[in-house]
Every structure is written in structure tokens, then in C-alpha cells.
Amino acid sequence: MEKFLKDNILYLFIVVLVFGAGVYFTYNSAMQMIDFSSEYRSKQEELKAQQEKLNLIKAQKERNIKQEKRKSENAKVIYEVLGQQFSPEASFGIMFESILSHITNSGLKVRSIDYNYSPADDKILQTNAPEYNACELSFVTVGSYSQLQNFLKNIAKETYLTGINEIYLEPYYKDKTILIARFKIRLYTKTV
Q1: Which of 47, 141, 150, 188 could form a disulfide with 106 if both were Cys (CB 3.0 to 4.6 A apart)?
Q2: What is the overall mean pLDDT for the chain?
Q3: CATH number of the domain encompassing residue 103
């Protein structure tokens, strides 16, 4: 056996060395796999936490959208003009046209119209919000009670009319069935 060991010592040494190297590389590979596995688990947990945050943000956004829809269903909308394509005065043109068509469609006659761009007492303009424009439209109409009623019903449905500031009614002195109505309506536009 000694002779066998002396003759084959080199081979035995190589076998032990190869076996040791195999164990060493297997051990290193196993440790790398364990490290990779733990890193993978931590990344997966981090990803899961981020997904939960994303789901919470999406749910909050959906709640906000639903709240905005409820608000917009119950409230009037400010007319938005894209960019600076119109001057502040020209941005009210569509609303003026709409109000005048409501007046004529209801049968009222227009006695006078006055436009006051950027009224000094306007609360929105006093906040120095440069994207908002305001105009106070003052007009006097003449017509019957039913014509005035039709006008008020139609104008209440107007999308961009946020409110009527003042209405003053007086009967015509020669015929009490005719009303003279003075209106002050505040209109707003927003440049986006």
C-alpha cells in the first residue's frame, strides 16, 4: 500500500485538490445563491410595498376625481381659453353671444347693454390671479312676466354663467303687464 501511495501520490494529491476545489466552488455558488435569494426577497418586498403605495395613490386619485365630478355637477364652470389666443375682452365673446341669444329667444327686448371689463370690486381679480378675467355685463330688458320667466329659466341652465349679481324689476308705468328689468351679471374666463 505504501508503494501504491508513493507511486500515486501525485494522482491522489490532484484528486484531493480537485475535490477540494469542487467543494470550495460549490460552497461559493451556494452562498451566492443564498445571497441572491435574500436580495431577491428584499427586492420583491420593496416592490410589493411600492405597489401598495401606488394602489393607495390610484385609489386617492379616483376618490378625488369622483369628488370633482360631484362638485362639477353641482357647480358652474369657468370658461377656459387656451393660451393667449384672445385678449381678455375677446374671451367673453361666446358668453355674450349666449346671453344675447337667451334674451332674444325668450322674447325680451334689449334696451341697453354695458360692459365693465375688470370691475374694481371683483373678489377674484383682487387676489391678483393673472389667469382669470372678469366682466360685469349690465343690461336692461323690456318684456312680459312670462318672457322674463323664460329668460331666467334658460339662463339658469347656462354652463358658464356663475351667478347673477343684481336684478332690479319695475313695471312699465303705462302698462303694468310689461316689466323693465335691469341685470348685472358677472362673467369669468380663465386662460390655461
Answers
A1: 150
A2: 81
A3: 3.30.70.60
